[in-house]
Amino acid sequence: MAYTRDDVEKQERRQLYTAIGFFVLSLVLLNLPGPAQQQIATVLRSTVLRPFVTMQRAVNRTRVRAVETTILRARFDSLTVQLVNNATLAEENDRLRGLLGLGGRLGRSFTAASVLRSGTPGSESVFMLDLGARDRVHANAPVLVREGLVGKVIEVRDRESIAMDWSHPDFRASAMTPGGEAYGLVEPDRGIFRESDRLLLNGIPFFTELEPGTEIVTSGRGGVFPRGIPIGTVVELNQAEERWRRSYWIRPAARPGEALQVLVSTGSTTERSNDLTPAFRPEVADTVSGDDARQDSIVPDPVASGSATDSSLDAGSTQEGEAPPDTTSGPGAAATGSPPVADLGPDRRGASQGGGGAS
Predict the structure, then answer these.
(1) Segment 215-243 mean pLDDT
(2) Are residues 223 and 174 in the same domain?
């Protein structure tokens, strides 16, 4: 249906009358008293404007929730960072506490040192120590952590020294099982990444089989590493040459990349102990002290105690009875049982000798 000019004019007039009506209504509402305006506004909000009010409340609630979510996320991130830092600090404190306990068991021949790494390519297996010749550090000094062997010193300067860890291609250590059932030589096997580095135990006799999990320690041979320092544990068999020897993969006990504080030997080989087993395995020292205590608590042998009683009785009778025979006079005097000559002193002996001569 087509619109005519009259329809357009009617529509324009209708819009004009509507605008004028709203204008008049607004003037009337503005001139109403306050209570009446509040009542009308309440009616409008609960009827005509109710959907709009509801939508506005939902929008405001969504905005508040978005702000609260942002705040909670920020708090969660801060809490996560604190937990991670606390976990790192707790791990570091545990490591330092263990290192302090190990240092106390090792004695004064080992001194704590800080590890400094250059981070340059090609120096992954070499690190620096903040102790040098002034601190009595010497070449080939063992470098230890709580878990076991890290490496050894290869160069000593005045105030610092350079050491290599067990992943260095030149590292070698004479090793054995704790009970001495098998001896061999430990050498590194470099992986593509530092996390894949491991050790290889060579020279095990063919008829000696090591079970996975067997601990491997230094044997003390060669004069570099003392006996009893943990090196690692057996993982699996590498190869077995027919009727000749076996080799095993070793999981290292200490990770050089995690070593920030270490213990380095600062005493000569004559000053330090040649067996560090009690330091890394305190239960061994406890067992030895327990054996000593059990030896002290053993009940005396009745035969020995009887002999001791007879000896004491003989001594008592000697004290209460006559003086024992003089054994210096020869066997004849002891047989006749003649009493011993009392010591008369030099004057009386002279007088008695003179009288005897006169008679």
Answers:
(1) 88
(2) yes
